[in-house]
Specification:
70% of the residues lie in helices and 0% in strands. It is mostly helical. The chain is elongated and about 55 Å long.
Amino acid sequence: MTSYIPSITLPAQVFAQPAASILLPIALGTGIGFAIRRKHFSSHFVSYDLAKFIHHLGVLLPVDTQRTYLALKQPPYRPPPYVFGPMWTVLYGAMGFAAYRAWTTGMASLNPETRELTKQGATLYTIQLGLNLLWMPLFFGLKRPIEATVDIVALTGITAYLTYIWGQVDVIAGWSLVPYLGWLGFATYLSAGVGHLNDWNMADKEVERSPASKGDSTKYVDEVEDKKSL
């Protein structure tokens, strides 16, 4: 059982306004993505074709992250990189809608228990949003897969509890979090899988040169090794 902690909870005005509630996680997630991409040049959300397009426009796109990303051994069923951007945009929007729906429904209730559950969920929501935004800097910025996996495991657990709490306040709010929760479970598998397959060390993972510079293959290192073994 958690408690409502105003000092670490987003302001009520954010939850009460649909635009603010929906756009805030989208804006924060996009901002973190661009910040990490700019500083550490993460290609997690950048497809090879987009990288080449930017390169041909004359925009300097450093190559170290392309080398790192392609050098990471990946677990089975990994989605292509271009899936992540649109997927997270939709999930952030659904997350924000769930927050708005739960808050407006719960705080309008005459039942004190429902109002308390709503506020408890608001604290959980803020905590899970912070953990969500922390994962990308840990994984791609600092290249710390152990800490990133611990983060996403905690994030998934808190989101599961949040789904349960807000599901009691409003059924639609609860179900709106289900796709996000499912994706977090899959992302946990990917995070742990990449960490395990790369011996929990991403610091020295690079191919010899960027594929964007000379038209090289964009296959992951394990796919290249599989091809060589045939």
